[in-house]
Design brief:
Helix content: over 70%
Protein name: Major facilitator superfamily (MFS) profile domain-containing protein
Keywords: Membrane, Transmembrane, Transmembrane helix, Transport
Main location: membrane
CATH superfamily: MFS general substrate transporter like domains
Distance between the termini: 110 Å
Number of strands: 0
CATH class: Mainly Alpha
Structural class: mainly alpha
Strand content: under 5%
Shape: globular
CATH topology: Growth Hormone, Chain: A
Membrane topology: Multi-pass membrane protein
GO molecular function: transmembrane transporter activity
Largest sheet: none
Length: 437
C-alpha cells in the first residue's frame, strides 16, 4: 500500500512539472517563430547582398581606378606630352591627397544631411567628369588642377560607403562586406592593367596619345554610374524599394539589437562629434592605418613603374604583368574575410598578412634578380588588402552609437594618404631614375 501511494505521489510530482498542453503549444509556436525569424533574416541579408553590394563595389571600383590609373597612363608618354620635368609627375600624383584629406571629414558629415543617395550620386558624376577631363589636359597646371578637384569629390566616397554599410549590416557581417570594397580595389588594379593594355593600342587614334584615351574611356562610365546611383541606391531600409514591409521591420530590429540604434541616436550633435574625436581608439587606429595605407597607395599607383624597372618589357607586357598580382590580392582578401566572419577574429589575420606584405617589400628593396622582385610584388599583394581592409571591420563594434560613425570613419582614412605623400616620394624618385636609365 505504501509503495503504491509512493508511486502515485511520484507520478503526480512528475506530472506537475510537465508543461500543460497549452504551454507545449505555446513553446512550439515560439520555436517556430524563432525559426521563421532566422529564415526571414537570412532572406533579408541575401537581398541586401544582391541589391547593394554590386552597386557599392562598382562605385569603389571606378573610384579607385580613376584615382590610380595615372600610373598606367604614365607608361604611354604622359610626361613627354605634357613636358613634365623633375618631380612634377610625383607632385601631380600626390596633390590629389591634399584635398582628399582636407575634404574627407566634411564630406562624410554632409552625407548625413543630404542623404547617401543624393550625395554619393553627386560626387560620382562629378569625379566622372573630372577624370574624363584629365585626358584633355595640355599642361602641367591643368593636370594638377584636375587632380586637385578629383581629390575634393572622391574624398567622401570610401568613408561614406563604410558608414553606409553599417546602416544595413550588423557588426558580425561587416568584415565580408567591407572586404568586397577592397576586392573592388584589387579588381580595379587588375582591370586597370587590362584596360590599359587594350586602350594602349589606340595610341594615335584621333591624333591623341594612348594615355589620353585611358583617362577618357575609364572616366565616361563613372558619369553614367553616378546617374544610375541616383535611382538605385536606397538611403536606408525604409527607402529600400526591394524590401517588403516585413523585411524592413526586421532590419530595424536587428540593427537595434546589434548597435543599440535608437531614434535619439540618429540625431546629430556637436557633442557626439567631439566625443568621437576625443576617443583614443580612433587616433590609435588612425596612426596604425597611416602606416598600413602607405603600402596601398604606393603599390596601387606605382606597380606598373616598379615592374617596368625590373626588366626590358614592352609597355603592353608591363600592363599585363600587373594583373596576376591584383587577382591574388582579391582572392586572398575574400577568403580571409569569409574566415574572419566565421571565426569573428580580426587582429590575428591583420598581423599575419601585414607581416607577409612587409616581407614582400623587403624583397623589393633587396639586391635580387628581376624574378625574385616580381615574386615580391605577389607577396605584397597577398597581404596588402587584408592588412588595409580588415581593421575597418575590426573597430566597427566599438562605434556606439551610430551617429559617431560619420566623424569617426574618415580620421584614419584621412591620415593614411599623408603617408603616401610624405614617405613614398623618395622611393618613386628612385624608380623613375631606374625607368629612365
Amino acid at each position: 500500500m505504501d509503495a503504491q501511494q509512493t508511486a502515485v505521489g511520484e507520478k503526480r510530482y512528475h506530472d506537475s512539472n510537465l508543461p500543460s498542453r497549452g504551454e507545449s503549444l505555446e513553446m512550439g509556436q515560439e520555436d517556430m517563430a524563432g525559426s521563421d525569424e532566422k529564415a526571414l533574416e537570412k532572406r533579408l541579408v541575401r537581398k541586401l547582398d544582391l541589391y547593394l553590394i554590386p552597386l557599392v563595389m562598382s562605385l569603389y571600383l571606378f573610384s579607385f581606378l580613376d584615382r590610380v590609373n595615372i600610373g598606367n597612363a604614365r607608361l604611354y608618354h604622359l610626361e613627354e606630352d605634357l613636358h613634365l620635368t623633375g618631380n612634377q609627375f610625383q607632385v601631380a600624383v600626390s596633390i590629389l591627397f591634399v584635398t582628399y584629406l582636407t575634404f574627407e571629414v566634411p564630406s562624410n558629415l554632409v552625407l548625413k544631411k543630404f542623404t547617401p543617395r543624393r550625395w554619393i550620386a553627386f560626387i560620382t558624376v562629378s569625379w566622372g567628369v573630372i577624370a574624363t577631363c584629365m585626358g584633355l589636359t595640355h599642361s602641367y597646371g591643368s593636370l594638377v588642377a584636375c587632380r586637385v578637384l578629383l581629390g575634393v569629390v572622391e574624398a567622401g566616397l570610401f568613408p561614406g560607403l563604410n558608414v553606409y554599410l553599417t546602416m544595413f549590416y550588423t557588426r558580425h557581417e561587416l568584415a565580408l562586406r567591407v572586404g568586397y570594397l577592397f576586392v573592388s580595389a584589387a579588381i580595379a588594379g587588375a582591370l586597370g592593367g587590362l584596360l590599359a593594355y587594350g586602350i594602349g593600342h589606340m595610341d594615335g587614334v584621333a591624333d591623341m596619345s594612348g594615355w589620353r584615351w585611358i583617362f577618357i574611356i575609364e572616366g565616361i562610365p563613372t558619369f553614367f554610374l553616378g546617374i544610375a546611383t541616383w535611382f538605385l541606391l536606397p538611403n536606408d531600409a525604409e527607402t529600400a524599394y526591394f524590401l517588403s514591409e516585413e523585411e524592413k521591420k526586421m532590419q530595424v530590429i536587428r540593427l537595434a539589437r546589434d548597435y543599440g540604434v535608437t531614434t535619439s541616436a540618429q540625431q546629430f550633435s556637436k557633442v557626439d562629434m567631439m566625443k568621437a574625436f576625443k576617443d583614443w581608439k580612433v587616433w590609435a587606429f588612425a596612426i596604425a592605418q597611416f602606416g598600413i595605407d602607405t603600402m596601398l597607395y604606393g603599390y596601387s599607383t606605382f606597380l606598373p613603374t616598379i615592374i617596368k624597372g625590373l626588366g626590358k618589357w614592352t609597355t603592353a607586357e608591363v600592363q599585363l604583368l600587373t594583373i596576376p598580382c591584383y587577382f591574388l590580392g582579391a582572392a586572398t582578401y575574400m577568403t580571409v574575410a569569409y574566415l574572419s566572419d566565421r571565426s569573428q577574429k580580426r587582429g590575428l589575420f591583420i598581423v599575419i598578412f601585414g607581416c607577409v606584405s612587409i616581407v614582400g617589400y623587403g624583397i623589393l628593396i633587396s639586391d635580387s634578380s628581376a624574378g625574385v622582385h616580381y615574386f615580391g610584388c605577389f607577396l605584397v599583394a597577398l597581404g596588402l588588402y587584408v592588412a588595409v581592409g580588415m581593421p575597418l571591420a575590426w573597430v566597427s563594434p566599438l562605434r556606439i552609437p551610430s551617429i559617431l560613425l560619420p566623424p569617426l570613419d574618415p580620421v584614419p582614412l584621412t591620415m593614411a594618404p599623408c603617408s603616401y605623400r610624405t614617405i613614398r616620394r623618395d622611393m618613386v624618385r628612385e624608380q623613375q631614375q631606374t625607368v629612365c636609365s
